[in-house]
Amino acid sequence: MKQFIHLVINGLPWEGDVQVNRTLLEFLRDDLGLNGAKQGCDGGECGACVVMLNGKPVQSCLILAAELDGSSITTIEGLNDDISRIIEEAYVAVGAVQCGFCAPGMVVATRALLEENPDPTPEDINNAMVGHLCRCTGYVRTVEAVQYAVKRLKASEAREVRTNVR
Amino acid sequence: MIAGYIKAENVSQALEALDSSQPMARILAGGTDLMQKTRATRQKKNNDIVFVDIKAIEELKGIRREGDDLIIGPAVTLDELMRHEMIAAYAPDLIKASGYVGSMELRNRATVGGNICTKNPAADLLVPLLALNARIEVADLNGRREMELAEVIDGRFKGFGRRTIITAIKVPAAETLITGYRRWTQKSMGRSYLTAMVVIQPAETGKLAVKIVMGGAGLWPGSFTEIVSPDTVKNIEKRKTFCQTLVQDKLGAAANDDAAYRKQLAWVLIYEALEIALKGVK
Amino acid sequence: MYDDLIGKGVPMVDGLDKVMGRHLFTADMQLPGMLYGKVLRSPYPHARIVKIDTSKAKALIGVRAVITGRDMDFPRYGVAGQRILDEQLLAGDKVRYVGDEVAVVAAIDPDIALQALDLIEVEYQPLPALFDPREAMQESAALIHEDQDSNIPYKINFTRGDIEQGFNEAAVIVEDKFYSPLHYQGYLEPQAAVADCDARGRVSLWIPMQAPTLGRGTYANALGIGEEDLRVIQMPIGGSFGGKLEYKLHALCALLSRATRCPVKMVNTREEDFQVGLPRVPMYIKMKLGVRKDGTLAAKQTEIVADSGAYINYGHAIMLSAAHRHDNLYRIQNIATKAWLVYTNKVATGCFRGFGNPQIHFAYESILDMAAEQLGMDPAELRLINSSQPGDVTPHGWKLLSCGLSDCIKQSVAASHWKEKRAQHTDENERFARGIGIGCCLHVSGNRTFLPDWDGAHCVIRIDITGKAVVSPGETDLGQGSRTTFAQIAANELGFNIEDVSVNLVDTDISPLGLGTFGDRATTLGGNAVRMAAIDARNQIIATAAEKLELDPADLFISGGICYSHSHADIKLPVADIAKMAYYKMTGGLITGHGNYAPPDVRVVDPDTKFGNVSAAYPFVTQISEVEVDRWTGKVRILDMVSAHDLGRTINPLLAEGQVQGAVAQGIGFALMEDMGVKNGVIANRNFERYNLPRISDMAPLTSILVESNDPNGPYGAKGLAEPAFTALPPSVANAIYHAVGVRIKELPITPEKVLKALQEKEKNI
Fold first, then answer.
1. Most CB atoms within 10 A, among A58, B77, B258, C203?
2. Which of A41, A101, A137 sits opposite C661 (nearest CB)?
3. What's the pLDDT band for B158 if we cut at 50, 70, 90?
4. Is residue B43 scored above 90 in pLDDT?
């Protein structure tokens, strides 16, 4: 069975039929070719599938594509603003990325955190990232990455950074 | 396989959809629980589920004050609940309880109604709502009625059946309640394993009325009110004895294999909840 | 002079791709006309397959292939170097565990494939199943593999010195039993494979695979084809920790592609991955240790029953590592060890960080503390007294050319305020008690335990006419950053900027036929080969320039990608220009450096005595953990940790510390949290909701100390890293708990329930 939906994805309008059985995660990956959100568990536990829905971070494996009529979705591919770029560079610079499977989900969550709370405490960071499993890094540097991004953001008004538009 | 997805515009439409699509119709609110629980079913072609999405129904959203009550819409997300100034003013334990649920991503979708209906006797919001004497309004094809939340749970969690929708959660607005909330989970982002909440109010002749609601051990969830002298709960050794005795005598035999461990944790959680609450008692 | 980049914290060269979501994993691949494969798995732990009817499945519209074990004579095979061929791609007459592969289906979409599985009718005749290896090893037990004499495919029995004399000399003898359970790797990327065929039926496999060369051989055997008909292309790996070596899904995907002549993708669901992965080998360990009055270790007697699950996989080598590696950690001469690898009707077990070391060190390091207590000696002191030293040749013939264990112990003791904290004791009536504990371990840096022919590495480096270097190693990047380390080593020796060096993933058609990454071999063996190849390339660049400039090659050097002269300050020749000169001269050939590294003086162990120096270098670790135990709930909270790692030489401190942090986090999971919960052969905790992986809130402050013992064999002195940092954590926590509350838990994981129960029993006994 199909459902016709309109939505905005990474700033661009989209409309069409979606299978009602499809999760948002499957829709992004299989129908739209946006592979940045990963399927780590398909059960809402690992956070690798996190994207923004109407500006808030959500687990895309727990949402049906059919529910999204009228919504706006931003995936890692759509995070092209300066703040996101600084976050991404921070994760790399402090060594908070190893295999990279959990990384896009963490970046989206970090973007959401800093949008709401530009100066988070380590406890705030822990609370924001508890939904993200990482088996490689031990999370020590996750906290450092967010703190480093905050530091860089404070130091400079977000300068014009060369963006890579998909 | 999800055979149908119906986006209800109002309660009647939702009720009709639920009724006509049994036995596999389910209310889809936040989906954080439902999607996990139906994962295996959704993958099989021969199990036809119908999801009835209630998120577009305006009357199920929002938080407002009506007389002495706070009215919470069942489709309010935990995130919205946590940010609402009326909850902060009149039922701050709900904010504390919500904060333990899952992750920020989960709380952006999970709803108050969903948390109550999840059939976990230790459900995070269920216990404080019971402690706060919440009532719920439910609707089915026969009409609407109001019930005490405690009445619904009634010692054996029956829920409401699949053709019923919660339309409102009503919490008496109380500005100055002395409370303590504690929750135990087995896993780092796990569901609640045990939840305890205490409400302390003055009783006659200088005594205290201590209401304890415990979810996850023995009866589910159990609610008891004891009238005690303040010293029983203020003195650390006596408090310990009080909690251990309460659990021993009042919590019935549980069916779980880990019943003994739950009983041990139960008195510790009640003890800690009392400790938190007593910080507010003169 | 070429030393600039060594010791620098260079961030991952592919880091930005990863964070931006542009790093392509196997499940992200799409090929035109791609089919989706699914596996029909046995619901029984042990059963005969009476009949299989695939007709309904084949008739389902959209299904392109259905294959069962009856459709061809599937060859028997084993993983690389393992001589008992106990596996077949699809079950023949029997299934031996819940999850065993019975049939595969390829269809035009995943839903149809799943539906087809339901339409395959299999008649099983259930057989009695064995879940406990101690039962399965009895003479009377039913055979799980009927073509073998028993359920014990491998045994070990060796002695060193004089065990009886040793125990006679002991002032203190401690003996106890320990258990290490099934343990899931928990990599975030579920197992996946994509396969495609060319017109002649030659298969290419795109897989997240730690050892493409070994996989090519094993899968060719499994498919009954020649290695020449298979190409293995390594994809970026979303975490592996040992779990992505030879894995059946890869070969099954190739099978379906060959059958359909179409591309096929297969991805495990997370539940499948739990049930049919290759979790850590469980072990029942009995250990008896004798210690002399002066604290020296007199004798050790060990018995290990290792649970292979339904198939051996790398069980034989894992058991060997548990049997003999820890004997080289401290000086001990009198040793007697017996070990049995036993089949059970459970998931086949396999490699996971540490191999068999974590299991045995949990026992050994716990027993050492028990002995220290009886002797009235500080546990750190006991370890220091017995510590192996550089230059030691151990009773197993291991040559410890470098050994920083003593420094690890001393430095971690100092950094953790060990002495003061050991002296503190919490009153029995206090709810919260603190304790501090120590654990040590060692590991190998690559090893020749099970592949007799060689354990070296080869690397090829091409210098392009643009002045960039392309490195082709034989060792894979698992996500830990070996590409970055290799780029660093290559850039360092070449005199290039690191941005001008790229490192390829491994492709068996193109790359050197390297053994891959496991056993902590990548930096020591792979790194040496990269270094040699870079030196070779540099020499060729300089020779070319020298000829053109008519100067002595010794006069020239490269820095920042430019060739300079010691004697002529005006010479500034970009490498790109030199590369072009060489290219014209070689009529299209590019300067290509080769590096061939064979670790000196290593051998396969003697098959019976297990004697032999297996590795070129041995890393050592000391872990100290401070805990708080809640006597009322049994909950253990880790307060602080110090990890001292003798890694020989730190090539990249950012990556090295990252490994330590990740290892310690996994150690916390293994020690306190992770339980697969197997019942009647079914993994009860088979998703992340029920299986408790450490989250950000579970980490405790960690001080990481990197000790540089400068190994003569390692590149720049570097040894392996990453596995020992994990191994030492669990015993340090168990020992800390004992210090805090006087109970010793001998079965992992140390859950609150176990601690509480032990505390309650202790109270009763007083």
1. A58
2. A137
3. low
4. no
Classified as helix, coil or strand, B103 is: coil
Separation between Cα atoms, residue C706 and residue C621, nearest integer Å: 9
Peptide bond into C701 cis (omega under 30): no
Q: In C140-169, which positions are buried (b, 16+ CB within 10 angstroms) versus exposed (e)?
A: ebeebbeeeebbbbbebebebeebeebbeb
Query: Looking at C234, C267, C300, which one is the last position of a domain?
Result: C267
Chain C segment 445-474 residues within 8 A of A by beta carbon are none
Name the nearest CA neighbour of B209 among B228, B222, B223, B190.
B228
Q: What is the mean pLDDT of chain B?
A: 89
Chain C residues in contact with A163 by the CB 8 A cut-off are none
Interhelix angle A82-93/A140-155, rounded to 10 degrees, is 140
CA C623 to CA C629: how far, in whole Å?
19
Q: Which CATH number fits domain A2-76: 3.40.50.720, 3.40.50.1370, 3.40.50.300, 3.10.20.30?
A: 3.10.20.30
pLDDT at position B117:
86
Closest CA to C699 of B185, A95, A130: A130
Strands of C620-630's sheet in order across: C432-442, C620-630, C636-646, C702-707
Mean predicted confidence (pLDDT) in B55-71:
96
Q: Domain A82-155 belongs to what topology?
A: DNA polymerase; domain 1 (1.10.150)
Q: Distance from first CA to last CA of chain A, Å, rounded?
A: 31
The count of structural domains within chain C is 3
Which helix (H) or strand (E) segment holds residue C124: the answer is strand C121-126
pLDDT digits (tens, 9 = 90+) for C322-372: 999 999 999 999 999 999 999 999 999 999 999 999 999 999 999 999 999
A45 → chain B, closest CA residue = B189
Q: Could you write out the DSSP letters of every residue in C20-50?
A: TT-SPPGGG---TT-EEEEEEE-SSSSEEEE
Nearest CA distance, C115 vs chain B (angstrom): 6
Using the Cα atoms of residue C636, residue C753, residue B121 and residue C669 in order, give the sign of their dihedral. Answer: positive
- Which of these, C395, C397, C329, C384, lies nearest to C360 by C-alpha position? C329
Which residues are paired to B184 by β-bridges?
B194
Output phi, psi for C230, to 5 deg: -135, 135
* Least confident piece of the model among B36-45, C46-55, C701-710: B36-45
The CATH code belonging to domain B178-278 is: 3.30.390.50
Helix runs in C176-325, H state only:
212-223, 248-260, 270-276, 315-324
Judged by CB atoms closer than 8 Å, whether chains meet at C654 and A41 is answered as no
CB contact under 8 A, A29 and C17: no
Which one is the CATH code of B59-172: 3.30.465.10, 3.40.1390.20, 2.60.120.280, 3.30.420.40?
Answer: 3.30.465.10
Contact C356, C724 (CB under 8 A): no
- Chains A, C: CB contacts within 8 A come to 168
Altogether, the residues listed in chain B come to a count of 282
What pLDDT, on a 0 to 100 scale, did the predictor assign at position B23?
79
Gap between the terminal Cα atoms of chain B: 58
Inter-residue contact C653 to C475 (CB < 8 Å): no
Q: What is the CATH number of the domain that holds C404?
A: 3.30.365.10
Distance from CA of A63 to the nearest CA of B (A): 7
pLDDT value at residue A164: 40
Look at A99 and C666 and tell me if their CB atoms are within 8 Å.
Answer: no
Residues of chain B with CATH 3.30.390.50: 178-278
